[in-house]
Design goal:
Blueprint: H1 5-21, H2 28-36, H3 45-62, H4 72-82, H5 97-107, H6 116-141, H7 157-173, H8 178-197, H9 203-239, E1 241-248, E2 251-258
Antiparallel strand pairs: 1-2
Helix pairs in contact: 1-3, 1-8, 1-9, 3-9, 5-7, 6-7, 6-9, 7-8, 7-9, 8-9
Length: 260
């Protein structure tokens, strides 16, 4: 069993984002006590927003090559020794499954946090943002893949897409059931694990990819509602004006009204 301990470490670290991001609702009896407590730094919105992605991206960067707590080289050696010859295409399917699950829940009558149109816009916006960050980082880092196929290893775009979709599912349905979030993050963690087992990515690629995916969705869920409200308010302001031509006693004119 000892030889599998480091492989299990991978799953524990990748699944840690579930427990950082997924927050169980407190019991009603505890609500008053929580409100009465003074807010501490680890309870602030800023910490809740950035803790998981910052930890994952920071660990990913620290694990590049033969550095960090448990280097990517060591992880690759252990995985290839314990699980040689892994070859599957499920890692090409799983990244989109959290979004499919979200659509299935909505069609089943389980309403999400946002209107489906707004949710779809945020999903594609987060997908574009995360993909752009991933591609740009690949160009800058120029890290060779463990299988030597090219120099576009860091970060893992498959893992980025999987965790972006998992965080999207979490944002939409975290108030419905914690197990929906767990399902999404389990699929995302599986994608990251398979990318390493197939020798397509290093440990650092997967860790950083998970953080980028989560962060991109979190940013989108803050920026899009703000932009939406700004546009909506301006639209309402324009709609409040009424302009109409007049013709009274042979004299032409116009009236301009504004409804508050």
């Amino acid at each position: 069993m000892k030889k599998y301990s480091r492989s299990i470490l991978l799953l524990v670290l990748s699944m840690s984002s579930v427990f950082v991001s997924v927050k169980a609702r407190p019991a009603e009896s505890d609500t008053l006590q929580l409100k009465q407590k003074k807010a501490q730094w680890y309870k602030t919105n800023a910490f809740k927003f950035g803790a998981a992605p910052a930890l994952l991206i920071g660990l990913g960067i620290s694990e590049i090559n033969n550095h960090g707590i448990y280097s990517s080289y060591k992880m690759r050696g252990e995985l290839q020794k314990d699980f040689p010859g892994v070859n599957t295409r499920i890692d090409d399917i799983l990244p989109s499954m959290p979004a499919v699950l979200a659509g299935g829940l909505y069609l089943s009558g389980v309403k999400g946090r946002n209107h489906p149109v707004d949710a779809a816009i945020m999903f594609f916006a987060a997908n574009w943002l995360s993909g752009s960050i991933g591609d740009k980082m690949k160009e800058k880092t120029h890290l060779i893949r463990p299988d030597g196929s090219d120099f576009k290893s860091f970060p893992s775009n498959h893992t980025i897409a999987a965790f972006m979709a998992a965080e999207f599912l979490h944002q939409e349905y975290k108030d419905q059931s914690v197990w929906i979030s767990v399902a999404g993050y389990t699929m995302a963690s599986t994608v990251g694990s398979i990318r390493m087992l197939e020798d397509h990515h290093w440990f650092c690629d997967v860790l950083a990819g998970a953080g980028i995916g989560i962060l991109s969705t979190k940013v989108t869920y803050i920026v899009y509602p703000w932009l939406h409200n700004m546009v909506f308010k301006k639209s309402k302001a324009v709609q409040g004006f009424n302009f109409a031509p007049t013709y009274i006693d042979g004299k032409a004119g116009a009236t301009l009204n504004y409804r508050f």
